[in-house]
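2024-03-11 09:14:02 INFO receiving multi-entity request
2024-03-11 09:14:02 INFO entity count = three
2024-03-11 09:14:03 INFO echoing inputs for audit
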Amino acid sequence: MSLKSYVTSRVLLTIPMVFLLLTLVFVIIRVMPGDPALLHFERHVSPEVLAEFRRRLGLDLPIWQQYINYIAGLFRGDFGISMQDYSPIIQHLHARFPATLELSIYSGLFAVVFGVILGVISARKYDTTTDHSIRLLAIVTYAIPVFFLGMIFQIIFSVWLRILPSGLRFDPHYTPPPTITGLYTIDSLLTGNIWAFGISIRYLLLPSVTLGIILLGIFIRLTRTNMLETQQSDFVMSAKARGLSSFSITYRYSLKNAFLPILTMIGIQVAILLAGAVLTETTFSWPGLGTYLVDRIYHRDYTAIQGTVVFFAIMVAVVTLAVDILYAYFDPRIRL
Amino acid sequence: MTNLLQIENLSVEYKTRRGIARAVDNVFLNLEENKTLGLAGESGCGKSTLGLSIMRLVPHPGRINEGKILFNLDESLIFEGGSVEKGQIDLMQLDDNQMRAIRGRKLAYIFQDPMTSLNPLIRIGDHFTEIIQAHEEDVKKDEAINRGEEILETLGILPERITDYPHQFSGGMRQRVMIGLGIALRPRLLIADEPTTALDVIVEAQILDELATLKKQFNLSMLLITHNLGVLAQTADDIAIMYTGRVMEIAKTESLFEDPKHPYTQCLLKAVPDVRKPDKTLAWIAGAPPDLIDPIPGCMFRPRCEFAMEICATQPPPLEKLDTGQRVACYLYTKGVSKK
Amino acid sequence: MPTLTHELDCELKLVLTQTKSIKGIFLQLAPIRGTFEGQSKRWWIIFIVIIGGSLSLVVSLILLAINSNSGLGVHVVTANIIIGLIILYSDIVRKRVVKYKLLSQRLSILLIAGISGVIAIITMGLSIFFIPAAWIEFFGAVFFGGFVVGIILIFLYEGFPILNVYKSSGWITIAGFLIVSAIIYMTVVAEWIVPYDPFTLNVGPLLGPPTPQFPLGTTSLGQDLLSRTIAGGAIMLQVAFVSVIICFSIGVPLGLFASYRGGIIDNTVSLIMNAIFAFPGLILAIAIAAILGPGVVNMALAIAVVYIPSYFRVVRSRVITVKELPYVEASVALGGSEGAIVSRYILPNVIPSAIVVMSINFADAILVAAGLTFVGLGLPIDVPDWGWDLTFGSHQLITGAWWVITFPGLMIVILALGFALIGEGLNEILTPKLEKGV
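2024-03-11 09:21:47 INFO inference complete, emitting structure
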């Protein structure tokens, strides 16, 4: 199979998937029992206000027309308007996306780097105390709710030790670096502002480590299992029989071959990462998509909830597709 | 002639969920230079474990319990962080680095399944550079590739294909690549663990033929592990028959086929079909090998042996040399044991 | 366009086989077989510290509560233990009596467990729906609690041969099981052992640190945290059980049906399931819960939708493997009826994997339920719930009130850990991989 046909078929597979996801979200918010317009107003409102409200949001149209408008809007990059102030949702998403992206990148990096390192150590020190401790860490991190871990860190580092801030993205007394990419750490480096870089790292540290630790377990287990499996494989045995150094065997053989399944899993982990990001952001008042979503839930702003969830869906689909294509690039069996 | 490899009193045990299994039990073996020793037996008799223990690569949870593996090293090896003196050395006494220096360079191993024995993610050429650079650090990449191409050519593979990935080769060609990697550094001893079992008959014949040629060309000694006695009849100088981890009989190939001594060998040969004698009724051996985790005292073949005696149940018979030159582990040939 | 669909189909199979070989998110908890074999003693020390710590924490909570209440609680717990011992004794006796094989071993164990279970459920059910009288609840707590204690005792008693056979995976399963049943027990008898009413405000100081009178401190509303910690598992357990039952009873039959039939049904359902599976679970659950509104059943529904695909995928991959096994094909060739083939050959091969997914699903359901509560979508009122207390506690963090979040949080961790351990152990016991030969 050529790379081209692989990529084509992958894209073709992604399209119905995204379509299904969009429909699913629409069904949940608009079609399932419960009228979003009525749910939005907790108290009774006059029928005139309600009718006007529905008209402005397009909720008075027949359901199939709403669906067509919704899909057509998404193609134009229109995620609908908010129930609260009729502002376009994409505007909010655009403003808050960099924060979520920054948090996700750093915690993802943390999880992958430490997860793979610990997994490799665990596999190399197979069946020793080190191995068992790392395995246990992996099981325990699985069972900890991310916000609980975040709160414990907040208490230790912000309340007791007072060395790290307990929330927000940047020190409110200073102005954040000018927006270039939207990621504070990168923007501050691009503008050469080391001070701002230091501040943004300080604020980033707790949330990203918290989320990173939660994802850590999965990567440890994955790396370890795959390393052990490849270590028992015939080609590693024959590499040993050829007298290759154990370094070369660990990295060129076990890790390289274990890397492919890890890469596939990264695609799936993005979903978990984003779900975790919602809770982490809420814990640390991190001004990203997650806090926006939770904030909209408090305001019963169903169109905004729908828009945000759809945005998450598209993000996941895009990352999964990207990972699949990367996979093809790394695996010669598909590449050629 | 000198012994290239001399195995003394070797035992290998596997720790399993059910208990300890002795896969190799007090084995003595000799391999002379430039000879081929065939190692034959049923599956699970410990022949592969024996081969791997020479490389000191017995997989977890196996462990070499005791014994000596004496190897006659023709030159001193010096490598980063250590050296090995020439002369007769005990492989069991070497540390990991010394052992690594010997593997691939003096001892080569060819695995049974060529489909899974090459790293699917790196090119054939990289396999060659890896092994060459692992042992000769000053060799440049181009030079290593050139040597790889030469070796592929002697094995009848187009040298251009060195840039291909393993999945682009057929099974027979992969096994040739494996052999090529094995002989890349002109080792003294080539251990081939069922090198042709996964291949079809035509390719099998070609590969065996090539092994024989290479053996002459490179002055190789060979340990050929197989369950196929027919393969050994063509290629081996001596044959050792293994059963439940023990060597039952060692003999010259001709004398083994013409005059098998051990009852187990006799049974085995009766079970081999012969195209020249289509009327021959194939025999089979009643029963199954005993459980290695719960071994029986005495000779392991006793429950299936038609000549079993009382003494057979007491102690395993030692491997003794007969006047005719064979060595057999059976009380039938022990002097002073009264036959029934 | 048959060629395109065919190619897509092949692709899909490729994707599925790939994910199958590396397992879904759920089965990542699976270690490869032999991981624990021949392990050093030191591993057990770490293991026992964690498990033993969790268990003794739960048990000491119960004891602490009984001690500070020392009213009816003592009677309830004593009665529970007596009933538990009776169940254990009848189990031991049964083994000697069942010589004439009228009752098979398993059937009789089910019978005993079933009878006590039915009594417990009836009394519990009566108390909840019909007669809100205290004595019914009392009997419910006595019988149901006794039933749980009985199960714990039988499991410990019968468990030892299992431990011998399965070694570490047996240990892990039993450890997880003990943790979970200890928490279930605590929840069942909560009402009778809590020192204060978990709802009542101002029983103590506002946000008071742990003192002898209030061993775990008090909340910002002056409620006793010990009482709330003991009673707080009920909602989560209910949500978890309801959602797992929904998932199991939809996911497994759907997977069986679709993948056994194959063709267009299979492709469509798989596509939908994979789409849901790819979606961030919590976010989907948030969307559903936001529309459905707060409440146990709604929360359970939201979680159920998210986790149906994991059952579907596991069942599907098993069915596809099993369907092509020679004995199943032979049975098809011999003209076996479809129902018989599915129920006699396919189902028994599917159930073990589904059970493994189920125990992991429990752990996930608890974590998602806690997450939903945390974002404000969980429960309508201030019921005693670990998730709620954690959420409330997060507002008081700045004052340094560590106890308000620590204890409810730890309980969630312990409960999720218990289910995760069951899943991990069962995965090794129920879905063994081929052992490598010597």
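2024-03-11 09:21:48 INFO post-check: The two ends of chain C are 51 Å apart (CA to CA).
2024-03-11 09:21:48 INFO post-check: Residues 40-193 of chain C form one domain.
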